[in-house]
Amino acid sequence: MQPRSTLLGSIFMGSILRGSSLLPMAATALLLSGCQSSPGQQDGPMGAWSEDPMHGAPPITQGLDAAGLSTLLSAELAGQRGDYRYASQGYLEAAQRYNDPALAERATFAARFGNEAALIEAAARRWRELAPQAEAPNRLLAAFSLQRGDWLDSLEQRLAIVEAGGHGDVAAFAEIAVAEEAPLRLIAQQLREHLARPNADQLPHHSDVLLGTALIEATLGDTALAQPRLDHVEALDPESASLWLVKARLALEVEDYPAAQRAAQQGLELAPDDVRFILLLAQAEIRLNNIRAAEVQTDALLESHSGNEDLRLSLAQLYLEEGHPAPAQRLLQPLIGQPEVPNLAYYLLGEITQAQGDTDNALLYYRQVSEGDEFLPARAAAAEMLIEADRLLDARAFLRIERMRFDRYFTELVMLEVQLLDEIDQTEEANALLDREISRTPDDASLLYMRAMRRWAAGDIAGMEQDLRQILRSDPDNAEALNALGYTLADLNVPGRLDEALALIERAYQADPGNPAVLDSMGWVYYRLGEPQKALPWLERAYAQLPDPEVAAHLAEVLQSLGRIDEARQLLQRIMQRTDQHPQIDELLERHPELSPGMRPERTPSDTP
User: Fold this and answer.
1) From CA 602, how far away is CA 599, in angstroms rounded?
2) Sign of the four-CA dihedral 576, 578, 580, 583
3) Do the beta carbons of residue 260 and residue 284 sit within 8 Å?
């Protein structure tokens, strides 16, 4: 069904959805014949406008003046000729001017059609400002936050959808968070705060939030909190397959394997085609030491999904992870006779054979893994296996031969050998290998960068700069090298070189403007130059994309310098709850103990008696 479009939509929407075209004069006539806007829109991300977004606005002399008309007409014609970036920018500018959510929605539409990530986010934020109850902008912003690893912001958008009566997919978000090792304690805290709000249990999709919370809590080991939530969901929605999925996982977590078995069976009755329940049931049977029963389940699953190699491989991995290589080997053997054997099958057979103590045959399996995702893990496993067998020379010879066989992986294999030598305290051999290979391939930027970072770690700043400069001679726009050199000069506060550091980081920003490490460097160099106010927005942008301890330490120090100590303290507290490893924050707290999360909040003038 074709969306209805008037005035602003007639040209742009028509050109996109129908492939038609109108002359500019006709467009001008349409724009001048109508007057201006009051919003009428649907909430869908690509929703049509039920009435002209400019209908009912003031006369042209007060509303759609010459500048506004020019902006909208330019946006329409840009969309007609396929310049969606310019079209989106025009609509976004109009949305800023006229405060109309329909214009912001159209800006988002154009940006999505042109796959302009930055514009999509900017337009969606404006759309949300103008239509706080609309679900679509929150969904878009939640996806963007998740993509850049800002878990808490993504969850905030999802909870906003829930509070507006929509489905925020919180349980699905929780599954991703668990799989990706997100900051689960902070996520749990945010979910609990939502659940503690008045009338939260009256919202239409309350059970989804309960499920997500229970999954996070179960993963954290807070089973005493998770279980009552699941019981509540069971009372609300006992036919939810997601409920039984979480219940089975929770039962496995607390080692209640019969309960896990029952929950998985219940889930299978509700969703017989959901492979996850078969895997959970098999896992419960394995934990109950019912290996034969587990094999019956997995065999039945394979029979119903005949020819599904990925499923066979997943089941083999399950048996291996549970310490049962024999069933795993039986599952993999049928794949070996096929014309194209999956790389993962060879890799897993290598692991099984290695566990059986047959190093040479395991090596043969690992070497059968061809180019692809498993290539480097297979070479690493083979080399580590040889080293563990006191065959270091064989391991190094193996990696050298593989470098000759697979030229595409030359650099990665050199770096792998360096790493393995480091792990067995053969640092001099590692350095010699790196020097030798760089002398053979002097323009290998990855090897030069690796040596630069090793020199930096050893305190050889001059050597580090030499390697980075060599990269930049071959590739003047190498953002990684520009940023590393600029940041190092700024971080060490090298006398007389801060302007040079700024110039290097500006070049890095031009080459890679979306890189949060570069944004962090830009903020830090401005702080070193004595401009904390100028540094702040750069560091805020960096932290929004990369909320790690180093960026947090920089942002907190700038906030402290601006007198915003409470904000700095809260920021550090969030990060320190998230991870036990935060050396940059520890160093900051040594210099500024007043930022310690245990300190009392700063008193404001209104607090003074």
Assistant:
1) 9
2) negative
3) yes
